Amino acid sequence: MINVQLQKRTKNTKANGKSQYWTLRWYGSDGRRYSESIGLVGKMTRNAAETRRREKEAKINAGQVARDKPREITLSAFIEYDVDAVAFDMKPDSLQGMRHAGKHATAALGEHILLTKINQASIGLLKRYVIEERSCAPATLAKTLRTLKAMFNRAIGYGFLQENPFAKVRMPKTQARSKRVFSPEEVGAMLDVASGLWLRTFVQLAVSTGLRKSELLNLLWQDIDFERGTVRVAAKRPGTFTVPDRGEFRILEWTSKSYNERTVPVPEETLSRLMELQEGGDESAYVFLSLDRLAKIDAGLSSNGLRANFDLMNNVAKRFRTLQREARKLLAHRRGAEVKDVLWPMGSLHDLRRTYGTFMARVVPIHVLKEYMGHSKIDTTQAFYLAAESRDADVARESLSDFLTHGATDTSRRTLDAPGVFKGNAPDAPKNKPLHCRGLSSEADGNRTRNLRIDSPGL
Fold this sequence. Notes:
single chain; mainly alpha; hpI Integrase, Chain A; three-stranded antiparallel sheet; 17 helices; 45% helix; elongated; disordered C terminus
């Protein structure tokens, strides 16, 4: 067990001559004695200093802070060191996020600042730089702070720090992004106006399977089972495939976000669309990447001309926005209305996945949808079951209107449609109630509501 001692230490200062500081002292694993000043005697009481001593001793013995004095390293050198250390364990997007966070930190604090000199005041400067000088959104600041907090946690393990200055930083609250769920009419309009079989198939497969953009673009024809009507989302190992008269092409290494393989059912209409795309294709092993596109990617990778998280397909998001604008025009024409009178909040490609999740939440149990969507945590899936749609609001408005008009609300449409629930308010209706509802009465009738768990002798 490491013992940390509390002592008074006198230091010479230019302003006041000599000052006394509370100092913590302990022996490192190399036999050297280390010290840390924690406060000025007089401004910090002995009790407060003793509390800091106990905390320090407990953290050293628990392995939460390093016992030895950290090795000195500059901020810029540490960022490169950390990126290299985790390069094989993280995805390209995560590494790119580390580099972005590092650029913000070095721009705000300087490349040559020692890691051990970064404190709460330094973090304040970083916050002001990101928000005021760079004019970034609060979400960008939150992401930067989270990334740096994780990096500085690793710095403790590397022996560069004893404590993480970001550990107690409060992350800024950010406004949640609005979620767009497309209606069946809107999806139909997009499929009707989609220019070209590629875009039409891409959108239809996305909305009928809930696959992410990266999962769609890395999909191989061998992942689609036309007989069973399924699509398999699985990691891709680097390899090659050969096309007669065209030569050899790469299979790009890729892993899914959840790192797990899953199989998702595909409706017949989408399978037919996929067959049509395959028949008119160029024998590429990829569903949505042509041989010409693969050749460009290969040339970029060979010349190191592509960034780490390059796009497999350019302008997909832009094409989807154009598709929505054309679909809105089509809906306006069908309704005999002006385009400006057709409400169409612009959505993203990921909103096709949200549309799938919202629809399927009404069809399959939560644990099944979790597997279909590839969520690592069921809490993520649960959001689709708790989301209120416009039809839920319509039911709520209708029920409240009935309540205010008649003095009591009728059973909502959802309840009325549920199997095993009686319809109507006739006196003999309780015979048709589900078993768990029989015998229950309202306090408004002057009767106590029965608690089956208490009243039933068998429970």
